[in-house]
Amino acid sequence: MAENIYLFVPNIIGYVRILLALLSFWLMPHSPVGAITCYGISTLLDSVDGHAARLLDQCTRLGAMMDMLTDRCSTFCLMFTLCIFYPSYAFIFQVSAALDIASHWLHLHSVTLQGAGSHKQIDQGGNSILRYYYSNKAILFLMCVGNELFYMSLYVLYFTEGWMVPVVGGDLSLRPILWACLPVAVAKSGVNVVHLVSAARTLVAIDHVERARGGGGCEGKGEGWRLWSVCQ
Question: Is 71 noted as a catalytic residue in this protein?
């Protein structure tokens, strides 16, 4: 009897993340405390499902895809809200959200055509920046958390300047956190540019190989597309 992958523990955590994200979207226009709490828990669970998958030997393509899509859609919806709250900066938020989604989608597509089991698997011939980014768990965690904290701080500061975050030795205002995380958010966008350029180069290389074998064009059936067709 086949395993029920839908009920794997990491995937159940993924469902919880989606529900929390949806609830935060509903609360965002009028309930900052509830919205940021749900959004924050959903974001933190991103680091839990991966550990659960490796610990329980329940790594799946469904889980990896759901994990990435939840991240991208959550950030996009928060950006959408920020466009409403800060219309003067809407273009920046739009470009940032579009770059985030486009770069990760293209990157995922390129590594899938190469046969990788996850978008975080960068082989030795891949981009050195991305290889270091995904192999160094501390850097990956700090970059993702810092990026989310920047946009979450912007969201909360729309409602009040008075929010204080408990830290060792006292409380810290959100505004210093906002400015401290700004370079991280900018660096994260820089990594997205690297994702986009690297993935485009990979796809062009695949195109060259397939066209050389006579499998290019709209009706091409080269190695990459055979991998895709098997999954259908």
Answer: yes
Task: Quote the domain boundaries for residue 111.
Answer: 90-232
One of 46, 49, 67, 71 is an active-site residue; which one? Answer: 71
Query: Are residues 75 and 100 located together in one domain of the fold?
Result: no
Comparing CA positions, the residue from 100, 126, 124 lying closest to residue 196 is 100
pLDDT tens column, 69-88: 999 999 999 999 999 999 99
Do residue 201 and residue 125 come from a single domain? yes
- Please state the pTM of the whole predicted model: 0.83
Same domain, 155 and 66: no
Q: Residue 23's pLDDT is what?
A: 98
